[in-house]
Batch of 4 targets.
Target 1
Amino acid sequence: MRSPLSPLFARLSRPSPRSHPKFSGLLGTVYRRGNLSFTRDGNSLLSPVGNRISLFDLKNNKCETLPLATRLNIVCVGLSPDGSLAILIDEEGAALLVSLIGKCVIHQFYFHKPVHSVSFSPDGKKFVVAKDNLAYLYHAPGKKREFNAFVLDKTYYGPYDETTCIDWTDDSKCFAVGSKDMSTWVFGAERWANLIYYSLGGHKDVIVACFFEENSLDLYTISQDAALCVWQCDTELDGLKPMPPKDAAKEKKAAEDNEELLEEPKGEEIHGKADPSEQETRNKVKYSRVAKYFFNKEGDFNNLTAAAYHKKTHLLVTGFASGIFHLHELPDFNLIHSLSISDQRIASISINCTGDWIAFGCSGLGQLLVWEWQSESYVLKQQGHFNSMVSLAYSPDGQYIVTGGEDGKVSDAILYRNFRTFTSPRPSQFSCLAVDSSGEIVAAGSQDSFEIFIWSMQSGRLLDVLAGHEGPISSLSFNPMKCVLASASWDKTVKLWDMLDSWRTKETLIMNSDVLVVAFRPDGKELAVAALNGQITFWDHENAVQTGSIEGRHDLQMGRKELDKITAKQAAKGKSFTTLCYSADGESILAGGLSKFVCIYNVKEQILMKKFEISCNYSLDAMEEYLDRRKMTEFGSMALIDDGGGGDDGVAIPLPGVKRGDMSYRHFKPEIRVTCVRFCPTGRSWAATTTEGLLLYSLDSGLIFDPFELDIDVTPSNIHKTLRQKEYTMAIVMAFKLNEKKLIQEVIEAVPSSEVDVVCSSLPDLYVEKLLEFLASAFETSCHLEFYLIWSHKLLMLHGQKLKTRSVKLLPVIQFLQKSIQRHFEDVSKLCEWNIYNIKYALAISQQRGMKRLAEETPGDEEELDSDSDYLMQEVHRDKLNS
């Protein structure tokens, strides 16, 4: 009799489609603009990076980019006091309410205009948004059950110019708002009888920051001309008196009238006056300025740009446009430190909850620093490339990534030094570089002389100069399995040079268009070529035969730049792929170019498998397919009209071939593009250098139910039953059929170490690869290092010969396993060396003390014993230096 569940399991047992990589991180760029925010525990830092948010775990030295993005660059970040929610606001005022626990978007809201600042109240019940010359008080989401997450409570009027900063009192009763009109306003979050609003002057420039003193209404205001005013209030926080309740009937009638006049109910409006009457200020809260200080007494500092204040330690940190920052103790204004980060403007400052760490963000250099001011040491010091990244490379074990940028810098996690410089016999402009698989030969292509230069890595000596191309050299690639170099040129040819035959031309492949990039398959048997006409062709280079082609021009899906006179469809006709990379198994190929998409193709079927959108940031150019009608006038696009100059007609025409945009424009928008793509040697991830930074995509199958050859009898209860019967091989096979990682781990760790050899020998070949892949991932998290090493050793020893026949397919799994073991080897070896040194040092100390005691008993042998103890200490120190 057929079970009613059979159709379901029959459908689940079919081979599932191959899982695709998902966005896993943004590296190489640590800060763009906006305010920095420490988390509640003070151990992590939120940093806006374009239209994304990166979370830096400073205790564990980890960085994570949240899997969400706004439409434009983020300018404001508001973090709730409990650290569970964050409000991200972009350049146009579009906001995302984000859960930092679930790392997902909860709600979207549009403020219709740019927002300058956002701040939660200390009790987490409300938050204030500074927009235009107004301050809006909202009920914080999550505290009440409401349909709309953002409910407007009050609107505060007062400043005549745009608001710039916000700060709350510790009890959430009042908040202060700074403005560009050089005034600071104190408002009551509730309607207090003796404080509805209060206006403070005393400055001659824009207010940059304002801070309440701890548990007080006393206030500090700081302006852009580096002036600090100290304001003292005659009333304590407990002295604020609630407004007497109004007539309930009148309030109800007023509310009904308001609903009839307005389509949407608005919050309460509070209008402040800069010069209130004497009757209005009677029996009210009053402020008096008790001091005024200046940061630029010697005239060295001006244009204060950022400030932060820690109330418990009374620490004030100020940053300037010159890259200098000051630490002062308030209210006496005592200078603690005065240091310089760089020569660029400090855009944001934040202090953690303990007051020990200070974070600085410099938008000009993309620099992020966390400084421990008491020990005067850096907790974090990172800087992205000043200009766009153009190249990247993985280390052989996939553990490190190296990036190169247009700023001439190379980033890596390890400190390197220049040990060899290669020069050409005459000045040449190098356009591409390649190193053979042995690391002995270096080749560089020239853009002006059309030649290829070959050097020896060991000696740095020029070995040969290859001539034959009639156009600039665009790309070089060494065959990973043979001594063959492929060179691509704008002369529509690809030449193959035989390294063992005096670098003679082995083959010349003729193309239909200028060649931009070449790449060998990992096994060296196939060559991929991307040309200017948008085609990717595949060649059997041994026989000089074309085996396939992909028409990829339409897959690029170009966007229209603001200054383009033609549509995106017409512009795409002249676009092509500029970077290629095979996957570790050679079955797929990545392709990217001047587009926001990266395409992955199946080489055998020559079809598009998936198209990855690397960015949804519309602050970059060439993102929109059609022009925005809101930016259109009767004379054309507003972007074509430059207020600062251009021709006599006011229209500025860009130079052809400019990729990063014209920096002389008032509004600079870099163009979105992909400059380099590379697969990780483990085959589980790939990376791309883009205008946004270094993007990582990896396979994440932890949350996907993906059964393998599942039938109705494979259930967790049956697996546990089989395990109790000590049928370990059958239990492992059943666990892999269900394909739940926790269950697989439970079954494998239940196998006694003495039975591992028997289980590995009886395991079917189909499950050996799956078990190796599981072991590679388990090494990264499990503490059972020796147990999993036994499993790996037995599997490779018993099935090594069979695995060699499928080496190409299993290469990513083996490299993934090797990477995991290598990382543990490095950690354990360092620990062992340190322990050996400590043991030797302890033995030397104990022997030295024993000799001294013996010397006290036998005074005649003191010199001999001292020389012996000195010798022992020298041996210990010599061992330390050697290790």
Target 2
Amino acid sequence: MTWRLLVLGGACLLLMGVRGQCKEQRNRRTVSFHQTQQDGDQRQVLSRPERDTTASPRPTFTACKLPLTTLEHQVLDQNTHEVILVLSTISAPLHSFFEGGSSRLYRSADYGKSFHDISHLINNTFIRKEFGLLAGPGNSQQVILTADTPVLDNTGGVIFTSTDAGVSFKSVQLPFHPAQPITFHFLNPEYLVVISIDGGLWLSLDFGTVWKKVHEGTQSFTWGSGITLFFSFSPKGTVEADRRGELFLKRTEDLGKTFTTVAHSIFSFGYVGGFLFTSVIETLGAPRVIYVSSDQGEHFNKAQLPSASTEQFYSVLDGDEDMIFMHVDNPGEESYFGTVYTSDDRGILYSKSLERHLFGGEGKSDFTNVTSMRGVYLTNILEEDGRIRTVISFNRGGEWTLLNKPQNVECGEDSRNDCNLHIHGEHSRYNGITPMLPLSDPTAVGLVIAHGSLGDSISSTRPDVYVSEDGGYKWRGSLRGPHHYSILDAGGLVVAVEAHPMDGQINTIKFSTDEGQCWKVYNFTEQPIFFAGLTSEPGTKTMNISVWGYRPEDDHQPMWVVVTIDFQSLLTRECGNQDYVQWLAHATEGGDLATEGCVLGYKETFRRLRKLSVCRNGRDYVVSRQKSPCPCTREDYLCDYGYYRHENSSECMRQLDTADHALEVCLNGEEEELRTLGYRKVPSDKCEGGFTPLRIKETVNRHCGNSSQPPTASPYSETPREKMLLIVVCVGSGIVILVAVAAAVYTVRRMGYGNRAPTYRFSVLQLRDDNCSIAADPESVASSNGTSVFQVDSDDDLIE
């Protein structure tokens, strides 16, 4: 396989693989409908005050360390390459380096072992910091660089396009100035779409050579199914239209030749898992409600969810074609929490899944899809006494429980009677407690790596690294203190670098061949560096890892260094049949043999690597699994609409406010009456026979609502001046890593790049794609979910 890296002025890196590909994941897919206010040109977030987490004495455990043999050290030394990147010598003021971009472009075709300056290919042009580098999701060889062009002095911007992974670039003069990153179509990277600074919607069908303006007054857009494109716009062209719910939603199915208006008077919209969501006010003065379409906007139905007042919001936490996780904020400006609901396969009927779900005032949710095990989700709840605690579900939100105490860790004296593991997520990362989010990957079956605290709740003290090898059932303490970590060789190799050491510099990397049970330490450089980030080839099948950082020079300029370590020469033996065992997922000790390992209606037996086998899975490794059906039990069912699961019980109870009347739902203009015993099967559950409760849906011959258009308020509605924010986290299948390495002037400042993935500034719609690399810290370069990232931005911009 051929790999290439592009480095922009020592500040940006593009690692590209011709055939490598990230697995498409649906984790961390989030759509948020928020209320904000804007005064003049200064945007201000209506965020709630930060809540302090409690501090408690740290539990004790000893990390397992194995000595590195002399031979192993020699082999790694021979396969470790340090490269120094020279900063731009073109005269430019200091602030232009931080705010404008860079004029040096470097390229590597050997995993970062050597670099070549190719700045002349882009005429030494300064590239934008905000969204300067983009890579095609379906073709790693397609790259777009956006020049930093002054708006007042030019009629349009400039981009540089490459179809050969940076071997050559073509300069394109744009007839507009882009207001956000250019967006690729997810299947055909020749199709590009972007919004200009004057609200124009521009489309290119030939990878940016020719552009056509297809609409004006555009506020936001998103690709739907196939080549369908949805976008909202204001016919009056007013910037306050989205705050008053006066936007129109249009659809084009022929790339801008014809248009169809599918909704009007909306606040915002989103497209997740095949479902099109709109947020509207049905009548003047009424709270907002959600309408859902599963047929690309032909018909809308009202989601059976609590309505949201002006200080509340909705957020789609995760979703696919079978089910949606929806967070509904609790009333009150300082509630900090809400309720998680799960939908049916139509996205219309919702059941209560989890109460008091934490959603911080900074717009952070800890909701995490554990992609290494089917049906597993992690998140945090806010107890009435203010404690933040972690809960886990092994059946897609059917039931939630606290995490078990790690096997090798003892609790402190003050929490022996109430001791569980609690996982740090977005809330903790945003507040600087932890540098990384939980990490998992479908190719590393059952493996989960996360920062955690032990006790009765999450602690604000330095977290430790904990590892689970069975998808979250059992945990063990793995590393003391916070670390940056990465999964390599489909879980056969895990690497970690200490975060925030005492002197701020690092020179060692830790690696484990037994899923984090024991670690070896390798000193990769004699001159320590200030750490900026970890990057690896997309996916988890690589055995190369690059450590990025800088050393301050006498002139206070950073000397950028990338150290690439090739572990393939250390683990030379390919794994054979004797190195693998059969493993039943979701199996627990002492369970019923008939239902042991049954989740969502079937069992899965995997072929996975033995702990004591020191070998490599290799690039041809494919996850092997066998499925077998299970009899239905109550665990295969969610509580139906109007019902809830009683605490510490699998039985569904009817809600008091629905106890005396039939459950009626308006679907496609006809009223549907639902008769149920309180249970509905979890979407995608494949169980057979067993527990089968009655559930009958009958269409009543009564017209209701409007099946083709959500009911809307008058266009001259005098609703408060507020704004909806729609955040969409899309999981991409791209095969490119973009890493912004934090450039720094030693005595002045360090340039910060957020480790969240691309922020598409759409006014009310922002898209984020998680990336294939590993984050350094909240101001460094990449996230941890194994998918592509295009450009990073500050977390402060997630809520406008």
Target 3
Amino acid sequence: MQCVRKQNVRSKSQELLHSAHGKASASDNMRRLGLEGDTDLQFLLNGGDLLKVRSNSWKKNRYYKLQEDCKTVWHESKKTFKSKQTFSVEEIEAVRTGRQTEGLKKYTEDAVEGRAFSILFKGRQKSLDLIASSDEEAKKWVSGLVKVVSNTNNLTPQKKTEHWIYSCMRKADKNLDKKMSPKELKSFLQHMNIEVDDEYAKMLFEKCDASNCGYLDGKEIEHFYKILTRREEINVIYGEYAKTGGLMSAADLQNFLLKEQMEDVSPSDALQLIDKYEIDENAKAKQLMTKDGFLMYLHHPEGLIFNPTHKSLYQDMNQPLNHYFISSSHNTYLTEDQIKGPSSTEAYIKALVKGCRCVELDCWDGSDGEPVIYHGHTLTSKILFKDVIRAIKDFAFKTSEYPVILSLENHCSVEQQQIMAQHMISILGSALVTKPLGDKMPTCFPSPEELKGRFIVKGKRLGKLEDTFSDEAKAADDGSVTEEEDDEEQEKSKTSKSLKLAKELSDIVIYCKSVHFHGFEDSRDKQSFNEMASFKEGQAVKLAEDSANEYISHNTDKLSRIYPSGLRADSSNYNPVPLWNAGCQIVALNFQTPCTEMDLNQGLFLQNGQSGYILKPSYLRDRATEFDPITLTRGPWLKQKILHVMVISAQQLPKVNERKHSVVDPLVQVQIYGVPADTTMKQTQYIENNGFNPMWNENFQFEVCVPDLALVRFLIEDYDSTSGNEFIGQNTLPFNSLRNGYHHVPLLNKNGDLLSSAGLFVHIMVVHSE
């Protein structure tokens, strides 16, 4: 949350309440978004009729309009004339033109292509399929929404705070008189997630009500706003180093960066930060940083906890493919549970956009000769294989340019396997790996760098890689063509054991040939580098616990894929960390399920440019390694460090329960995930009735033996002694990506999306253990 410059406080605070209603508010908010006078945005504010499409029989006209706050879209039914809030622009993940979603493809004709568009939401919320009255109107809707979403996401923390406070003021001003009564002030504080007793509310009101007229207006709201946005902890830190007439000179800022942030910076580096983040032009001209400029710096990448050099690609991408952890999804097609949940191409798109590099395709014979994807023997819906391949092609390299592995679970007849191969070859074209790279038969995997922009098929293959160019029979019996045969599915999959494998499909399996695991010795003696096994979670965890060093050695030249137990009908996940500790590369999780395990996955793959590939530590790439995460004998993996964490404060935490009088009692957990010796958790006391600006000032210390494999998770919960704590927000990041000093920790919601205004403020110090 931002402190506010003195010369601007009145205009901002008055603007917040006085523009809460009427025409002025729209122009004020357009200006805040940097879109003043934008014709596309004005089009959204005027609103218009759109045809909402849900099915063949459900297509209804709705009047949609962007509200004056420029962040909420409402719609009105022409039949009932009832208006209701539809969604916030902050919930939008993407806006797509044309008939790109399954719904629009299925329920509309080609003729509406230019008028159709879809709004895709974060999390599990269903997409909104719409048709405008003309191509031109559709373009205006799409262009306007894209601008609003982009500019909202790029608002400075100061602007986000103003937006949020404005929204709360608007809700509290019940009689729309643009003034604040004592009752409205208390309601406003509750909207902002602060609960105060009547005496404190009365004291606060009287302190601001200089005119003694019984309500706050004008300068009194200005005073109240100043009290509200004060960050005492920032005042203390800034005051310690602002030694130049109460402001920070470049030398003062350099001193702070050297002593507190432990950064090796020069005076010119400090000057660059002043020039970049100081918001007072007079101070900037004198090469000084005000408190507001200092806070602005702390809210931007240079001041956040995650090492900005790790945000881009920084690891060697020229190692063999099996030397990397690979972000991997299980049953990628599902959006909910494994029994009756819907299947969707959108699930593939969401996983790929999140950086996932290995997706699963569970393939079955479909009607009309077209193979389909769904969870066999269940009520999950079916989608066409070719539609999935098209979606994968279109979105595979939006986030990462590194290779995507298509993990096939093949239950199809030979005829439909041939069609699968035809679709992959025709749709993916030259991007599909159909023969080994280079002129000679390989003895190890190519690197992610060599495979940029390519697709690799994982599945069963007839014969060895050396037989790539030899002529074989059109089909051959290779036993079962499926892999995931959990105990409860044995009976169901007996039929697939007699399925034959089409040569056309076999021929495009090059680097990831699926084989069954018969022990480490058998794998070492009989398997080629490109032959890989899939392990169900129970088997993999047992190997990681009982034979960790052998498993690690196995994974130095082979790929291993881990998948969740079939008993996880609810699409829950297992803990991936012990499998990463054992060097397993493809640890497949249910991406559709918000959970701690997905937080850990997102945290690990946050680094290295979100490429979906993380280079394993050297001791997980050396066949002769003696590393064992369980016993932890001495070796290069032991880099013992002490982590000191001071949990200072949080800002603008969201409500867990949206009821008016529900205010959170937040506490913070600092969790370490890694080798067993490092895995631990410590937590603060809870703060009663304050989600707006709780302050803890609590210190914790952790000993970390293997920092290369450690993840740090900051979790904020709403304390509840009766029914258990509830999730508020979290952030997980690699231990080696932590930065020393005072830093804000952005918070993510359950779905892994950024909470726009919420944050945690901490001090970090990592020192070598003696």
Target 4
Amino acid sequence: MSSSGDIRIPSRLPLLLTHEGVLLPGSTMRVSVDTARNMQLVRSRLLKGTSLKSTIIGVVPNSRDPEHETEELPALHSIGTAGLAVQVVGSNWPKPHYTLLITGLCRFRVEQLLRERPFPVAVVQQLDKLEQYAGLDSGDADVSSELGELSQRFYEVALQLVGMLDISVPVVAKLRRLLDSLPREALPDVLTSMIHVSNKEKLEILDAVSLAERFKKVLPLLTRQMEGLKLLQRTRKPRLDDDRRIIPIRKGGGLAPGQLSMEDDGEEEDSDDTSLLERRVRGSNMPEAALRVCLKELKRLKKMPQSMPEYALTRNYLELMVELPWSKSTTDCLDIRAARVLLDSDHYAMEKLKRRVLEYLAVRQLRNSLKGPILCFVGPPGVGKTSVGRSIARTLGREFHRIALGGVCDQSDIRGHRRTYVGSMPGRIINGLKAVGVNNPVFLLDEVDKLTKSLQGDPAAALLEVLDPEQNHSFTDHYLNVPFDLSQVLFIATANTTATIPPALLDRMEVLQVPGYTQEEKVEIAHRHLIPHQLEQHGLTPQQVQIPQDTTLDIISRYTREAGVRTLERKIGAICRAVAVKVAEGHKATKTPSSSSSSENSCDVHTLFLCSGLLLGLNPDPRCMVYVWSILLCHYSQPPQVSERLTLPGVAIGLAWTPLGGEIMFVEASRMEGDGQLTLTGQLGDIMKESAHLAISWLRTNAKAYQLTNMAGGPDPLEGTDVHLHFPAGAVTKDGPSAGVTIVTCLASLFSGRLVRSDVAMTGEITLRGLVLPVGGIKDKVLAAHRAGLRCVILPKRNEKDLEEIPAHVRADLQFVATSCLAEVLDAAFDGGFRGPAPSLAPPPVLSKL
């Protein structure tokens, strides 16, 4: 369809009114259809038509805005273009409309409008006749010489315009081929649709029916386009290749006078910048493999124009390679005595962690090439896992960098992105090395147990190479794509539990358990670190407020139940805020010691506050020291947490381990008439449900030996009886085997009607034969029992070795009963033993307040 003479359009055409542009013969244009008349034309002719004739429509320019369409048809332009609809696409967003792809065929004149609704149809006359151009390429003597000269001149100007463009661009190459293949009469319309012209100018070209007139109108447009390209080329900074730069040289080796232009200055500046980058690359002491890659990228950078997007990517890559600490490291402080003093001053307790760091220093003294260990601190929140990592870095004299891994679900955060992606960047490991500037820092991988999987990969799997001492000497980041040695980095990971860490990753780390603190350790930590820090944060001084150790112990035992010290620090902060208010108000003491002490329990907080300084014999100054009594705590904090008492049969105290530390757990049981069913509540997991069924089966088997009866006095405890077993805190999911002995004791108390000792807690797994098997988390569980004020702990005999980790003063306060079978558990859990006669139901010992 390149020659319009080969086309005969219908004499009647439906008209498509456009306002977005002007369609010229030989060009293609997308038209958005959203007006009522045009949409009806598309539905009636284009979507339902099956023949080629039905897809030929008349495209007529329309100056009226379609948003102001009225019932009356606007005045039609007399000249239009017959077009072939080659594609129709419909959409309902943001409103129903169609998008047409139309190829222009030839011009036509509107002779008569036949109808306006539902879409306009007109009688048209085809204007582009083949006879009009017949002599351009054939040399016909009847063709005027003026038209031939115009067409040749037009062709030459078109060649010049295409020659100014980059022939490597596919569109430009295609345009160059079109100039030789298209007939000369089609060139004005085709080139007009490709260069930058306004719709008004296109409309003038459409109205130019005469070919000579069309050549004359398009020639100035081509000339204007060429002038614009020349101006654009002059404003851009030229970048010539070195072999095309010719600079006159004087004898003395300098430049000839007046020969150094601004362009030369820019080129020299770029050359100096690239040379400086090359010197930095060669002086970075990077390995041979990395150096070869950098020099190759640098060679590409020199041949690359700055306007290319890849130029900035390549330069950023080279600058990162230069900034990485390939051979820069810090010297370790190997003084073990100084390290011990520094660790003790920063952290109280944590003897196992300190001992491991000192062992590393000792081995480093004997062997300098020791690889960095990969440690994993596992413990409840608030015990100082992150802060001890920072202290280790300070002890060794190394740089410290923390990488938070909680919620990370993309492996690219560890390995980086490949440079083929837009916005690619290195992973957190390489970014951390760039930030610290040395290749042997201390990296803290915080919350490694909270990594998650996603469609972007598994970051835990990406850490396998990082945390493997046999592999991390050649860690390859996707962005760098060259190996980097991580063997000198000291990796420390932190986690609350190892249950969610993949086994392969856990196997690569040396796990160090960080259990909770005892009450005595918390008191020391509070007075060494927490209280001074809170006083500083609240603008107070030790001369203005003092918190004695008795008060601190009261806060710990009555107002906090945690393995760490975060809640304790918040309680101390609440006291400091209350004291700060009084100090800022400038109250003066008005009461005497006798008047305040006589009614200590009834006086208000203001009186207690003001009298505290008088009891110490201090002057009642507005800035006087405030001595915090325990009785003041009820005003500065929430009411203390008080535990329950075991006053009914069917209640026992168990010990549980959680990621937040050890906890005591009350197990309750009741029975009622029924058909022998067991009901379990409290969001129990499958393992705890199995432990409950094991306990019932063992008790039914040994009911006669222990004189256990049902509600009717029969020998089978479940005959005609339903049992309900409940674990309080029903909103918390519970699971694990260590509640087995507690369930047996609770049910034995229920069936026998005897009370369990209220100062006893227990833990251990059971079997169907009545054996007690070892469990984990003994230290956390024992500390929880000690915090609760219990006096006796029943645990499996095979867990006796775990008692060595418990502080001596805690072991001195508690009595431990190591058992190997359930008979020993029951004898220890009941006063006088479970086999002996039942004692009278005197009031049981009261469990101390928490």
